[in-house]
Amino acid sequence: MAAMTEELQMNPFQERLLTIPESFDVFLGGGRGGGKSYGIAYLALRHAEQYGIKARVLYLRKTYKGLSDFELVTRELFGKVYGKDAKYNAAEHVWRFPNGAYMELGQLETASDYTKYQGRSFTLLLVDEAGQFAEPSLLDMLRSNLRGSKSVPIRMIVAANPGGAGHQWIAKRYVFQSAPWTPFLEVKSKREWVYAPSTFDGNDQIDREQYLDQLESSCPDDPELLRAWRDGDWSVMRGAFFAESLSEDRNAVPRWTALPPADEGWHVYLSHDFGSAAPSVTYIVAKSPGAEWEGRWWPRGSFVLVDELATNKPNNLAAGMGWNVAQVASAIKELCRKWDMEAAGVADDACFAKTGASAGSIADEFQHAGVHFERAGKADRIGGWQMMRRFLSDAGKPDKAGLYISRACSYFWQTVPYLARDERRAEDVDTHGIDHGADACRYGLLAREYAHDVRVTWLRSGR
């Protein structure tokens, strides 16, 4: 390695990280403050020193703003090693090392961003804060950029903390495959990986007592989130936002075989969240008058999500199939025919915005296609989430209205339990997560005051 201007100091986690053979890809998945960023920088430095002009390193974050912290890490570390001999072009976010090695700090948020890297070759791919990616398709695409000469091993390093928008897919793919520090075959990449966790408690480069105080103050009302960030515990994060209110045992109910008759006081309607590039999600919602149905008692005011329509791509919960309103409306009407109900209900305000199209708004287009939507009730996101959590928590209580979700609603069960909190606004869901099913559910609850009027208006109109 080049002559250092200052001595490098690693914590025990970083030292162990560098002992993993280069033939293994690595997932750095511990809690906060464990030294993952410096660990990534050490890996990049070693790769550059070992392979010189053949080394081409790409470090990625979701946004350019997120690069700033890591840029400071590299300036400090590479400055200690090379002094002024390593050159950083801040405009291009590129490091050029004295031996000809190349390292780029890049951004990847959408498919259009990937065009910057298409056709280019890298020998080491570093993805930091991967939990910000709600699903892994963009990161999987990047593997096609990993190629080099036979003398240079290609490698991918992924880092994330538990609790982000991508918690579900990351935990399934990397965390629960094998014991930490033990190689396992990851099926998607067909590569051997090692899960390398860390926590702040093992980082002797920071003031650990002070850092713990900051962690505890950042989530005072969420012990599960604290445990995830403090201990790097991925098992507690079944869903950071709904963890204390949503329970499969309490909220999941068997599939219904039929809808209750309207003349028995039940209000049955649709609740819809529209998307094209993102999935559209539509629920059939039944609100109980305080009655028995399908062999159990439903307290007055309880909501049941009976069935759903989700237009996501197969094996991709975050991506829609690109359907237009007419296609979504056709599928909704087919769902309603199955249940012998009117194609009427509520949707969010965005559906009623005048877009300038000939139909005027998305809701108008649905109207012309035979599906009638009214605006969901007025409430901000925070108020809506509070209501949803209250109904979820009260499910199963004989004297309380609750929210129940049929096992037929598979999109709900695959997405809503795993939604994370917004790190900057703990009372809100992380909007980078797959929140379409949660939004559609929230709109259905906001319709509670006038769901009956929606149905009556629809029927009286003769539509």
Keywords:
463 residues, alpha/beta, Rossmann fold, Nucleotidyltransferase, domain 5, nine-stranded mixed β-sheet, seven-stranded mixed β-sheet, 22 strands, 31% helix, elongated
List the helices and strands and how they pair.
Blueprint: H1 12-17, E1 25-28, H2 36-51, E2 56-61, H3 67-82, E3 87-89, E4 94-96, E5 102-107, H4 111-114, E6 124-127, H5 137-142, E7 155-159, H6 167-175, E8 184-186, E9 191-195, H7 208-218, H8 223-231, H9 248-251, E10 252-253, E11 267-273, E12 281-287, E13 291-293, E14 296-298, E15 303-310, E16 312-313, E17 316-320, H10 325-339, E18 344-347, H11 362-368, E19 372-375, H12 381-394, E20 403-406, H13 410-415, E21 421-422, E22 425-429, H14 436-446, H15 451-461
Helix pairs in contact: 2-3, 12-14
Q: Overview of this structure, please?
A:
There is one protein chain. With 463 residues, this protein is an alpha/beta fold. It has 2 domains: 12-231, P-loop containing nucleotide triphosphate hydrolases (Rossmann fold); 248-461, Nucleotidyltransferase, domain 5. It is 31% helix and 21% strand. A 9-stranded mixed sheet has the order 3-4-5-2-6-7-1-9-8, with helices on both faces. It has a 7-stranded mixed sheet with strand order 10-20-15-12-11-18-19, sandwiched between helices. A hairpin with a 2-residue loop joins β13 and β14. α2 packs across α3 and α12 crosses α14 (436-446). 43% of the residues are buried. Mean pLDDT is 88; it is low at 449-463.
